[in-house]
Amino acid sequence: MRKLLFSFLATILISKASAQTDVNMGIIPAPVSITKTAGNFTLGNNVLILATPSGQAVASTLKQFLATKGVTAKLVSAKTPLTANQKAIVLRNDADQKLPNEGYQISIKANRIILDGRNAGLFYALQSFMQMFPASKTNAAYSIPNVEINDYPRFSYRGLHLDVGRHFFPLSFIKKYLDVMAAYKLNNFHWHLTEDQGWRLEIKKYPKLTEVGGSRNGTIIGNYPGSGGTDNEVYKGYYTQEEAKEIVAYAAARYINVIPEIELPGHSSAAIAAYPELSCFPDRDTYVAANAPWSGSRTGKQVQQTWGVFDDIFVPSENTFNFLQNVLDEVLAIFPSKYIHIGGDEAPKKYWKESAFCQQLIKEKGLKDEHELQSYFIQRIEKYLNGKGRSIIGWDEILEGGLAPNATVMSWRGEKGGIEAAQQNHDVLMTPSTNGLYFDHKQSIAEDEPLTIGRNGKGFAHYSKVYNYDPVPAVLTDEQKKYIKGVQANLWTEYIETPSKAEYMIFPRVYALAEIAWTPLEKKDFKNFSEERLPLHLAKLDQTATNFWVPVPFGQPDATVNGENYVVDLKVPVNGAKIYYTLDGYRPSENAAEYTAPIKINVPAGQKKVLKTIVITPSGKRSIVSQSIFNNGAADVK
Ligand code: ACM
Question: Would you call the peptide bond into 508 cis, given omega within 30 degrees of 0 as the criterion?
């Protein structure tokens, strides 16, 4: 009896604890430390916002945010005298330089809310404050728990990439992307501007780069290599230099650095189509295969209409170096970023092997092979950029043939390149396709998923895979670990034609990215992230005109479970969403049974039952249909 009573009490205590506000106060990425103290700050109208001149931008964003919550605030100078019972939000810029770079503190007590931050830190304090702000008023005012938050990033580089070569995205979407990054404390936007299928940045000295290289005569239909067809529709687009500068300024206002990528020596078909002399074989047609998926003219150089990797790469001639230096001069004038990404990936050596010019150059320079020729290529570009005060980032293939002396390596073919580079004392950015950081991979293997890269279950990355990734490889020594500067996710857009699909692919994985980039390892907590904070953030996102991948219900087994009696206790992955289910094999919709309480499932011997669920959000977004098999010895279940 005593035991029973005890467990009854324990149950009450546990359920009370879980009903309290989330330990991370709803903030993504989870802060370094949060200490709640007694009492609440009651925020009503006429609150003062005190800010120094350098805090004005944050102050006015805060004022606008409060206005959306129905709270009027008054902006005043930081020197305004305050009485003890006057309610005020004080913004500071770490005057005594005690915080780590990008770090911030939030202190809420008595009648003061203090947001203090170093450099980007004050902006990040505001992001956290907006995320923890109560959803609704209690007795005509907002009640904010008294709290002390101390926070700073784990990594200095927190990146998100966008490929605008395969598909072009309008300026409005780039800005929306940057808004998402800023809200989640990501600070480097890697803008992949040149590709085989399109050159997307105006270069005034070489207008054909965008006139010719910015336009292709068709796009492959379906999954590469497909059945040999393209849609025969002209597809084009590019950013003017003014537009690119507008993006740089928009990003800078949100503490985001924009890293342009100008691909070399591979993925350069669009540039070669514009200026064929950049090829080893200017007279060789782009489409040489008899069955090339091409229904127009096959002669001359063409901007690619299919995906993949192409043999026609830049010839390492003086003319090419001159061209690239001129292009880079214009790029540097637009982008103040210390880092310029020069690609370096997937450059087949076939043409260099076949070219008498390249073979002669290899001999003249005393190089061993075409890999060393690639290294020579990259090192020349690095030297040029170093001379202009900039540094290069390259994909991990730049290790082959010898790393350029000051290069940062972006490790994408797993972690191997990053490990090697760190062992050679080079800075590393981790973005392994094998660990969930390729956001072009699908988020489930259900048939409901749209066309994505990877087939037959390959290239699949649920947000838990992103969350579980630690960018610092355990095999490195403590000294080598310091070279891991950060982590990034990439959005390649072969199969992402629209902003809406791009949103579908990044959410909710971008939240997991933010947490692995910012939050200290010891504070990571998948259950809290997934079941407490994700549903809150997705519910807010659901109220905006933004698409996202709706997770499946928490608590639903994703494998076959064996037994006779089950209780399936589900939880919605988006606050306010509904779960509908069937047990009769039919696909559920809003016409199926609505889940309101745990489902009891009894399976007679020799039979199975299949539970199918769908989540539908308040705005009408639908999850995939997910299914669980409850088996009690059915003959057709292995
Ligand atoms: C890459 O995904 N080719 C860097």
Answer: yes
The pLDDT value recorded for residue 453 is 92
Task: Report residue 385 as tokens.
Answer: 């950029």
Name which residue sits closest to atom 3 of ligand 1, judged by CA. Answer: 345
pLDDT at 13: 36
**Rounded to the nearest whole angstrom, what is the distance from the C-alpha of residue 438 to the centroid of ligand 1?**
9
- Ligand 1 atom nearest to 343, measured from its CA: 4
Taking residues 406-420, report their average pLDDT. 98
For residue 339, give the H/E element and its range. Answer: strand 339-343
Nearest to 328 by CA among 408, 273, 386: 386
Contact at 8 Å (CB) between 351 and 311?
Answer: yes
Query: Is it the case that residue 6 has pLDDT exceeding 80?
Result: no
| pLDDT range class, residue 20, cuts 50, 70, 90 | very low
Q: How far apart are CA 215 and CA 221, in angstroms?
A: 17
Report d(CA 551, CA 449) in Å as an integer.
12
Q: Dump pLDDT digits (tens) for 435-464.
A: 999 999 999 999 999 999 987 667 899 999
Q: Whose CA is nearest to atom 2 of ligand 1?
A: 412
Please name the residue that has the structure tokens 């990501």.
Answer: 186
Per-residue pLDDT of 513-537, as tens digits, reads: 999 999 999 999 999 999 999 999 9
Is 392:339 a contact under the CB 8 Å cutoff? Answer: yes
Backbone phi, then psi, for 534, in 5-degree steps? -55, -45
* Ligand 1 first shell, C-beta below 6 A: 345-346, 395, 412
